Amino acid sequence: MTSLAPPRRTAASADSPAPARRRADRTPYVLIAPSLVVLLGVLAYPLVKVVILSTQKWGVAQIFSASASPTFVGLDNYTKLLGDPTFWTVLVRTVVLTVAMVGLSMGLGFGIALLMRQVPAWCRRGMTFALVLAWSVPTFISTEIFRWITEYNSGVANWALGMQPHNWYTDATQGLAVATAVVVWGAVPLIAITLYAGLMQIPSELVEAARMDGAGTWGVFRHITLPVLRSLLAMLTTLSVIWDFQVFNQIWILRNGAPSSDYYTLGIYAYVKAYAGHDYGLASATAVLTVVALLGVMVVYLRQIAKIGELS
In 10 A of CB 67, how many CB atoms? Predict the structure, then answer.
């Protein structure tokens, strides 16, 4: 009888898949290497340079004289910065503004996303167009529009509120409220569209089953919508914190490039120290502390990205 035993694998045939597998394992790293090199060149060098500057005395003399080398001062800039009451006031103001901006952006964006799910298709298309249009407006233009709306004599806001004439920027609280409105205006479109896309991924069968079990609108929202969107909401909130913590342009433009100290955020504080006070070492220390503060937020963001990848 003819033997039906399987053919014996030779050493060559047994080992041949291994090199191909190793090449396949290396392929993603080879493809991503050029991007990593560019990122290291664009981001790593400036970051290292800022850290070095934060340990040096770097001022007017170093700017105008090539022979005046910067003096190493160690952690003196950090000690001076942390001992400055103005820095702590600016830090608290930045945190409060960030919380207000992120809270309003997420709340309005989520509300609009829920509304888009309920309205007819033609209305939803119009809302999407309006959101994308608002998102596409450059920050400079949108800030100038809000400055025109709050203009002292003929601003639309003053006319609508019946308080002409009124200067919104004499009181920093009102001025920062206008800046917050500009930031929220620019942030809501991305949040709303992203959350609407997430809402569309919720299986209708799941919602119908919840309603059959007696869940009302609030019950469906609490037990189905929020759990499904939890990772996406956390990711958008983390990104919003990173963006809003660094707000600069809106306040700077609203105050014509010369904000008073009660308008300072960390970004403006560092800029003024560098270019008005010519204390680049202290400004660099401020930038380093800002990066350190945001590192924790970035870790949360990366964890949310990983979690979303695991769920998908």
Answer: 6
Place of tokens 């990711």: 235
Question: Are 253 and 144 spatial neighbours (Cβ–Cβ below 8 Å)?
Answer: yes
Distance CA 147, CA 271 (A): 22
**Model confidence at 67, in pLDDT bands (50, 70, 90)?**
low
Helix intervals (H) in 119-225? 121-136, 139-149, 156-161, 172-199, 204-212, 217-220
pLDDT tens, residue by residue, 166-199: 889 988 999 999 999 999 999 999 999 999 998 8
Percent of the chain topping pLDDT 70: 88
Q: Whole-angstrom Cα distance, residue 245 to residue 222?
A: 29
Alpha carbon distance 141, 159 (integer Å): 22
Report the alpha-carbon distance of residue 141 to residue 148 in Å, rounded: 11
73-105 burial: b if 16+ Cβ within 10 Å, else e: beebbbeebeeeeebeebbebbeebbebbbebb
**CA 40, CA 99: separation in Å to the nearest integer?**
31
